Amino acid sequence: MTEAGFSVTVPATTANLGPGFDHLGLALSLTMTIEVTTAPKWEVKYKDKEYAEIPTDETNLIIQTIKKVVAMYEQVVAPQKLVVSSDIPLGKGLGSSATAIAAGIEIAGELANLQLSSQDKLRIGSELEGHADNITAALLGGLTVSYFTEDEMEVLTFPAPPIGVVILVPPVALKTEASRGLLPEQLAHKEAIKGSAAGSVMTAAIAQADWVTAGRMMERDVFHEPYRKVGFPNFDDIRLACHEIGAYGMTISGAGPSLFIAVPPDTEKQVAASLNQLFPHYQAIALQPAETGAVITK
Is 1 part of a structural domain of the chain? Predict the structure, then answer.
């Protein structure tokens, strides 16, 4: 077992990008950093007031992840104190749970000297998270495209795309569980074909750095947007405003509760300011894609 005394940094993420439902993820320029030191008992300390309601004992998601991962390899690790600094808004559709799981996997691997490969981490994280989009981007950085089933997993990575990002947070959050409950059990074959085509063209456009086309296809989702948009006041008005401002496209960030807006590089602050004025009941956050995924520093 490796002696403790290290830190791990993990980026925020957004997922889906519209029709890339449950398989596209993008790392963003917000981070969570966790300092790890040996302690008499397991403990988590959050430096940010926003996280005050998160459990700090062994029910904490990071600790639970560490224990699950080391147990998979029939290992046991000594208790640790985890001091967490984060600028990732909690429960705002920026992959905070995936960030915690990715951190837990990295910490477990370091403490128990598990020598986990990237594929090992991706599989474990996707199984714990239940889908692959946020967790792959959190672990690898950049843009990830994943195929994940019980028996198979394939992940392709792209560098962080040359765009700016605005996240628009609504006044009332819709919890992920409730958002998932809005989705239909079945989708007509004809509709699924449309969604698949939109996702394929969008991904190909991203690979070619054609964000005009990617942004247009981002708004052709049939898998979840039609059912979840009801949770966003002024959804159609915001989309129209984004077009007028010059954004590439707007869609729902993950399962919500935020909106993801792709904009030309170096315009994200200007777009965020404009949207703040037009829709003051929302909070606009200007970001960039992040190249780097989870990193351990000793």
Answer: no
**Does the model's pTM come out above 0.90?**
yes
**Tokens standing for 214?**
């990617």
Structurally, the chain folds into a number of domains equal to 2
The residue written with tokens 């030309």 in the block is 264
Which pair of structure tokens corresponds to residue 160? 């962080």
**Domain range enclosing 176:** 164-287
Half-sphere exposure of residue 26, counting CA atoms within 13 Å on the CB side? 27
pLDDT band with cut points at 50, 70 and 90 for residue 180? low
Helix (H, G, I), strand (E, B) or coil at 273: helix
Q: How far is CA 195 from each of CA 129, 137, 199, rounded to the nearest angstrom?
A: 24, 22, 6
* Nearest residue to 108 via CA among 34, 166, 181: 34
* C-alpha distance from residue 21 to each of 3, 139, 255 (Å): 40, 19, 9
Residues 66 and 176 occupy one common structural domain: no
Per-chain mean pLDDT for the chain: 93
For 255-286, write each residue's pLDDT tens digit. Answer: 667 999 999 999 999 999 999 999 999 999 99
Helix/strand/coil percent split, the chain, to 5: 40, 25, 35
Q: Under the phi-then-psi rule, with left for phi > 0, alpha for psi from -120 to 50, and beta for the rest, what region is 208? A: alpha
| Residue 33 token pair | 């950093």
| 216-243 pLDDT tens trace | 999 999 998 999 888 889 999 999 999 9
Strand partners, 287: 165
**Residue entry with tokens 């559709």:** 93
190 lies in some domain: yes
| Strand-strand pairing, 164-169 and 283-287 | antiparallel
Distance CA 214, CA 203 (A): 7
User: Within this chain, do residues 23 and 116 fall inside the same structural domain, yes or no?
Assistant: yes
